[in-house]
């Protein structure tokens, strides 16, 4: 049986949840949308203002980079949810 991590999203036969922050500088929004479009059972959840490490950080390069080493920043709150589609 193949490993899930070796399968492209289009070949998964189960529901897929793709969570994407709108200020993620590592994974682009269009890539998350492409993954969601590749699987009819995928749901794309966008979190407004969330970066790659789940922190609420503005889309400014210096603040993004410094957030990776700042353990005092809280995890993005659920109220930041801005879009849910399937």
What would you say this structure looks like, in words?
Helices cover 20% and strands 20% of the residues. The chain has 86 residues and is an alpha+beta fold. The protein has one domain (16-85). A three-stranded mixed beta sheet has the order 1-2-3, with helices on one face. Helix 1 links the parallel strand 1 and strand 2 (42-47). The radius of gyration is 14 Å and the shape is elongated. The model has no long low-confidence stretch (mean pLDDT 84).
Number of helices: 2
Number of E-type strands:
3
Secondary structural class: alpha+beta
Strand neighbour order, sheet with most strands = 1-2-3
Low-confidence stretches: none
Strand content: 15-25%
Give a brief outline of the structure.
By secondary structure, the protein is an alpha+beta fold. The protein has helices at 29-38, 61-67, and strands spanning 16-21, 42-47, 81-85.
Secondary structure: elements and pairs:
Blueprint (H helix, E strand, L loop, with lengths): L15 E6 L7 H10 L3 E6 L13 H7 L13 E5 L1
Parallel strand pairs: 1-2
Antiparallel strand pairs: 2-3
Distinctive features:
86 residues, alpha+beta, three-stranded mixed β-sheet, 2 helices, 3 strands, 20% strand, elongated
């Amino acid at each position: 049986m193949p490993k899930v991590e070796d399968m492209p999203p289009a070949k998964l036969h189960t529901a897929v949840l793709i969570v994407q922050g709108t200020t993620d500088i590592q994974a682009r929004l269009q890539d998350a949308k492409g993954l969601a479009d590749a699987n009819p059972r995928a749901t794309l959840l966008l979190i407004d203002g969330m970066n790659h490490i789940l922190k609420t950080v503005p889309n400014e390069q210096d603040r993004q980079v410094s957030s990776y080493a700042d353990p005092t920043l809280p995890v993005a709150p659920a109220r930041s949810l801005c879009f849910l589609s399937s």
